[in-house]
Write a structure and sequence with these properties.
The protein is mostly helical and 200 residues long. It has nine helices and no strands.
Length: 200
Amino acid sequence: MSLTHTLGLLTHPDREWEAIRNESESVGKLYLGHVLLLALIPALAGFYGSTQVGWQIGDGQIIRLTSTSALQLSVLFYGAMLAGIFIIGRFIDFFAATYEVKDSTPRGITLAAYTATPVFLLGVIAAYPNIWVNMIVGLIAVAYAVYLLYEGLPILMKIPEDRGFMFASAVLTVGLVMFVGLLAITVVIWSVGIGPVYVS
């Protein structure tokens, strides 16, 4: 059922956010029907791109990862996406009282999961690991995800748009802090030996 909202969020987000609000699906159902499936797209694309296609810096040789190394990194990336959606969702629920959300139904994870939809979908570009193409498509995906956040939060939480803007800005700040934290964790993980291993 959750996957049916994917196209709607891309074509008519306002109506789709209303439909999502009216459904009130559980976290388990949301993960099974939406997050677990869509998060596989960038993880599998990244595995394929880093092992089969490879990337090139300037006129240098094509660089590929070993299958074992790419699989480890893809699994860690997949897990980080699943955990990130949950953590940001819990933060949204925690902030709800501060922004005077009257509805007692926790909707934070729902908002986080559906907001991430364009990032999941456009993650398919990782199958072609060209740094400029990936950066441009990544920026488009993030920009649309931010748009969905600002558009969807007031609808999902049933709060005025001005308060929704401030709430969404706080959520965006938490997301950026989490991203920086993830980069720091990546450095730590690489330093203990779970880093990329290149095909020689």
